[in-house]
């Protein structure tokens, strides 16, 4: 006697899979939006179950819900150059599905040659990536959070480059919106809002 179920038997045996696809998608969206908590999947505790384990229930659930996960979450990039990793590690479908991005920066990150904005722009240029929507085409909202330490070094840098942040802000805002026909909302905030 075979214990292997065919696809139709699996659907008939599952109350979830018997629901119409549109309703299942609404359920996936609701579940994933309820679970929109800050976290780092790379550094998560593998011994504890994760809410993303829902995607491992069966192939059909994974196929139907995997991109909904990308559509419903806010993707947080603690450093702007993490976008490079998103570009190289995510599939085109996954990048297209991302709708909200939060980028955290600090004053030293404006001009840091190794891990800041300048480094990212040097990486983007030879690849023909001229605007944010080349990286993540589906993004509708970019939240840029400016987090500065209150130490004396940052205060001195702020005083020395008093006009730079506004110029950089305008340049970055144009970069976010370039090619997107102003479909991206850029939200600027201080200290993780």
TrEMBL record:
Protein's UniProt name: F-box domain-containing protein
Superkingdom in the source lineage: Eukaryota
């Amino acid at each position: 006697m075979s214990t292997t179920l065919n696809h139709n038997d699996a659907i008939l045996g599952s109350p979830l899979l018997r629901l119409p696809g549109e309703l299942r998608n609404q359920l996936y969206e609701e579940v994933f939006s309820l679970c929109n908590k800050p976290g780092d999947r790379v550094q998560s505790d593998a011994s504890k179950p994760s809410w993303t384990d829902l995607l491992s229930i069966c192939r059909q659930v994974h196929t139907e819900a995997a991109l909904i996960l990308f559509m419903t979450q806010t993707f947080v990039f603690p450093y702007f150059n993490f976008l490079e990793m998103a570009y190289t590690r995510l599939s085109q479908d996954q990048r297209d599905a991302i709708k909200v991005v939060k980028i955290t920066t600090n004053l030293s990150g404006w001009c840091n040659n190794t891990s800041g904005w300048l480094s990212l722009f040097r990486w983007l240029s030879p690849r023909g990536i001229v605007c944010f929507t080349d990286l993540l085409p589906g993004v509708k909202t970019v939240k840029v959070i400016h987090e500065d330490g209150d130490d004396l070094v940052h205060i001195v840098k702020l005083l020395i480059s008093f006009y730079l942040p506004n110029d950089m802000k305008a340049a970055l805002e144009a970069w976010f919106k370039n090619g997107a026909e102003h479909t991206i909302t850029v939200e600027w905030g201080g200290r993780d809002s």
